[in-house]
Design brief:
single chain; about 240 residues; mainly alpha; globular
Length: about 240
Amino acid sequence: MLEAAWWGFVGGAALLLGAAAGIWAPVSHRLIGLVMGFGAGVLFSAVAFELTREAYASAGATPVVLGLLAGSLVFFAGDWWLDARGGHRRKSPTGPQPDAAAMALVLGALLDGIPESAAIGVSLLGGAGVGLAMVAAVFLSNVPEGMSASAGLKATGRKPGWILLLWTGVTLVSTLAAALGYGLLGGSDETVVAAVQAFAAGAILTMLADTMLPEAVHHAGRLVGIVTALGFMMAFLLSHA
C-alpha cells in the first residue's frame, strides 16, 4: 500500500509543479493549451492500454462495459453538479467566472484527480510492479492542469499561497486514492478489479472530452490534434517498451 501511495503522490505532485509554473512563469495560454493536448493524448493511451485492455483481458466484456458506463455517468453527474455551482472552466488559464465558489473548484479538482490516482493503485495489483505508463500519463496530464487552473485562479485574484494550498490538498487526496485503490482491492476477484479499472477509464475519458480537450482547443486551436496524437504515441511506446 505504501508503494501505491508513493506513486499516487508522484502523479499528484505534478499539480504543484504545474501550479508553480502557472503562477510565476510567463507561460502563454497557447502553450498551456498545447501542453494540455499532449497530456490528454498520454491519458488516452493509458486508458486504452493500461486500464481497458487489461480489464478486458482479465474478465471479459461485461465488467468492462458496465464499468465504463458507470464511470462516465458518475463523472458526468458530478461535473454537471459542479458546473451549476461555479466549478465550470476550472481548467481554463483565463480563470473561472468571478463568482465561482472556491469549494466548487476544490471539488472539481478532486473529481478530475481521484479516478487517475485510483488507477495507479489498481495497476499494482497484478504483482508486476506499478504501471509506469499510467504514472507517466497522470503526471504529464497533471502538469498542464495545474498550470492552466492556477493561471486562471491567479487571474481571478486568488493569492499564490491559497492556490498552492489547494493543490497540496488535492495531491494528498490523490496519494490516499492510490493507496486505497490498491489496499481495498488487493485479493479481490478479477471481475471486481476489472470493473474498477473500467470505471476509472470511463471517468477519465469523460473528463478528457468534457473539460480538458475543449479548453486545450479553445486556447491553442487545431494544432492540439497533432500534439494529442504525439502524446498518445509516446505513451503507447512507453507501455510497450
